[in-house]
Amino acid sequence: MKKRCPAASLPPMQKSRRGRCFFPLLLALIFFLPMASPADPGFLFLEPGPEMRRSGGGNTQGGGHGTGMGMQRKKEGQEASENERQADSKKTGMEEKEEKSAMKSKGKGHPGSAAPESEKGEKKEREKRAAMSHPAHYTLLLGWPPAMKAQAPEDLLRAETAILRPDLSREILTPQKEGPAIRIRDAALIQGTYHISASLEKTDDEGRIFRLFTTASMRNTGEKTDPPEKNPETALEAHLPWFSMEDLSPDPGNNFARIHRKYTGDTLPLRIRLGGMPVPDLPVTLTTAEGWQQTLHTDEAGQVKFILIKERFHDKGVNKAPITFYARAELDSRSEKHLEIIKSVRPDAGDNPPAGTEILRTSLALTVHPTPLDWESRAAGFYTLILTGLVIGLGTAIRRRKRRGRWF
Amino acid sequence: MRVDRIRLFVQALCFVFLIYGGLTIFSIGTAIPTMACIYAENRGGSCFLYPFQRFLSMPWAMLFGSAATAFLIYLGTFFLWALVFGKTFCGWICPLGFLQDLITKIREWVGIDGSRFAWKTRDRFQWVKYALLALLILLPMGIGNSLLGLPRFTPDLAVPFCQICPGKPLIPLFEGDLSHLIIDFSSTTKLVLSSLSMLIAGLFLVGGFVKRRYICAFCPMAALLSLFDRIGFVGLKKKGEACTCCGNCFRACPMEIREIAELRDKKHMVTQDCMLCMRCIEVCPENKALTATIIGLPVFSASAEGFLKRQNKTASAGGPFHGETPALQDTATDPESASK
Amino acid sequence: MKSAIIKKLSAISGKKSPEAAGSPEGSSKGSPEDRVARRLSLHMAMAVREIYDAIAMEKNRPVSMTPFDTLFKNFADAPEKILPTGPRKKIGIYCMAVPEELIYAAGALPVRLCAGSGDAAEAGEALFPDVSCPMVKAATGFTRTGVLPMYRECDLIIIPTTCDWKVKLGELISRHVPVMMLSVPKFKAAESSRRFWYAEIRRLMHALEKVTGKRITRKKLRAAMDMMHKAQQEFRRLQTLRMDDLSLIRGRDAAAVANAWFYMDGADWTLAARNLNEELLERKEKGIGTAPRTAPRILLTGSPVIFPNWKIPDLIENAGGTLTCDELCSSGRLLWDMACIDEPLFDDMLDALADRCLLPCTCPVFTDREDRKTRLFRMIKDYRVEGVVHHVLKGCHPYDMELRPLEAELAAAGVSQLKIETDYSPEDTEPLRTRVEAFVETLKGRRLRMGKSA
Questions:
Q1: What would the pLDDT profile of A160-177 be if each residue is shown by its tens digit?
Q2: Contact at CB, A385 and B201, closer than 8 angstroms
């Protein structure tokens, strides 16, 4: 995945285009304007960390399969950084052992998956499988999309993050500083879908309370376990943050070895809920890493359906690398309508509303791959195949007819 | 016992396993010397060449540094596979080979006569697989490093062989994945490679109706595996003094290997193109002229009896043959049989 | 001895004369051709009877030889009954190089017309140089005189251009019968030769379809090939039985069985051969042999031995040797090589037939000796042969040419050899008998010496 660092990439872009393109400049201004007030923290995002990206993009929907698949996707990430390459190399081939040791040193096997000691070979196999899966590894980001800061504020260490595993065990994770970034990590040893949520509360100088929420989910291969006894739906309900944005994309099925990706041009159904209640008529904004954005309003069920915009705003040939799309929504208690919504889900606090203004923000970061239809043509391929077949087949048949005097 | 039937069965099993085996979350690794395509998502094991090309495209420092152990382990696995099974991968396991054999079966069923390469053509194309092998080693190397001071190749050339291998568009089709049946317009390299891929895939499908196993004559994997012909566990031995040079083996050989019929003095008959399908042993009417061995122990030998038995089955497989023989006999009311 | 022959001759001639007069050629009494024909008919009948009189005195002969004997006795008694009767067209062939399966598939009966009669050779002599192949002479004699009706009544005669004599045979007999020449490439190893041969076989196929008026289909061809395989299976069984330590069948009789294939329908022959094989198996269990175990095992190779020219096998076995195997195109090699159906498709089967007729053939008309040498060495090993007899017909140049290097190679391997150069006439029987007896004695002595040393 190619993440664009705005600090590095945007200013030169503005410079180079100043003469001919006013539009991006304007857009950039619009997006940077809110950042002008330094106290506004922006939105909270969970972006797939490098360990997930090495399998090719760390799709929020698709966890990586182990061997091979990653490299297949790497093919598309042309500008893969050296760092990524290093990680990639570890993926190749028959190298589970090394990876396993790496897992042991880094990862902390979560207690929920502590399997009962059984036969040694079986255990080994299980470890192998687990090693082939990817850890849940997310970077916490704070800011206004698309210009996310690489240098994370220390505030993020206070963020409350939790993970809901496929076996429905929920655990609070502690954000940790890794280099400049603040990350959370879970070994993710079980096969299934993992839901991660994060929230952060922040008060600025003017006394405004910002409550920031975000979610992410990933699929992972790994050790197969029995289906949980509890109802995953309710568990998910309980796990989701108070003000939540859910990706309602259809369930990709049970094949966890298969990669599921989002492509530009796909639809993205989202649902906004506050305290479990759908929020109607709320503007939801989808922003691409290049700054394109669209805003739609939720319907009665709190749902909104985006069509992932195709990004064709490039001049360096075809961009095949995945990009991050940011969806965000905001409830501001200064608005009457929003205040009512907040009050309706918080009847007990209705009498004494929190002092000052309260701003609720929820968001979702998505890795989206450019649709291959931008540069691939299935029809052309198909016709070439058929034509080749026809030409060769007919040619041979006619030649043979001439030689042998009969068709068969 | 007809070996070709058994072989087809084994091939079908291996095909199902290699293509759908991943659904059981079970994999036999990525160093298998056979064309089990890595692009098939539910695969139960995959081709050696893809990771091999990936490894080679690393910069030297990494290939011989941090990735060296992995590379060695990986090569070792390949070596073991090739040593133990050798060319049986081509004849008994390869999914692409199975597809070609299937097409041949369809062709036989429809009744289209096969054709053969002219000997000269056959000999002339021998180098192609070595050239492909050399390319699939050199091109990836040129991506990660600058070879002989040349500029580094474009990453579009990554895994060059996989991009033209007919397995890439065709094998994922069995999982309903049409996404490799494409022409990629994103760059000239991609355009050329993907067009080539489509051409070769078309050739593969149609060529199967013309000639048996003709793609195998250009397969770089066969070239790689032929390094293990002599030391491999599975062998094919010829007893020159029993051979009558009747040419049955040559005619039945899907790979059209002439040496098998012509060379009397050569003992090890696993030649560079041989895929150990044992067809030659099946059609050899001379006792023990040809023998398949595993670690030197004979497992299957040619014999006149076996030949006749198998031929009888081949002949009677076609419908109204039994009605025909009495018709031939009826007219033969000669005095000899009457006197008896 | 000679007086006995004269007596028999008179007896036979008395009995045979009405039949000879009844033959189509017999009407014009005075013409020299007619006289030749009558003499040939008489002499051949005499020779056949002589052979069968001698056979009648043999002990331990398998009973299952009867159908074959009946066939050969017909040469004397009823030449028109040699071939199976019926509406089938008859296709004459002259060599092993013609794929008989193709003829069967066309619904016709292949008749191999290679002749072995010394008297017929005399009858045809006028057209040939002094030293020439007696087989071709005899065939010409039979065709010109019409003594054996099968030489005249064939609807097509296919002559492969194997040796020089056959190349010219076509012209000589084309006055009497329709002839088709089949060009045989002499250098087997080249691809062009094979392609050429494939094309020739296709030409033959079209000619056969034209003559018989039936289309050769894939199924018919397959059935014919299968029939051939069954015959070959019996043939191989017979040859394998002969590998036994005990000599189960006289070499002459084995040659007769193969020889009968020339004239019999394939399926009938297979039946008769199967009966014979079964009987031989029984005899093997009972331990009944035709020769004592002490008899040296001899391999006969060279020019074909065709009825009624059974001089050489008789000489060898009467001298006390046992003819365990032969490498002759008239018997030991006749049905050995099998065509294989690889893909049951028309082209492939035609190619298989073509290959069968060309590639494994050890006939010396082909350029290299390697195949024949390998085969001989293999037979020597398989049949535990003690001595090799080279049979060269006077005028059979290809075998003659090959003889010297082959002898040298066999001698280098320590094989005792005897070269017999003869023709179809019985005149040199006595000197040959002496030589063969001496050879057999040598082999016996060698066996004794070896036994002592071992």
A1: 899 998 888 888 888 888
A2: yes
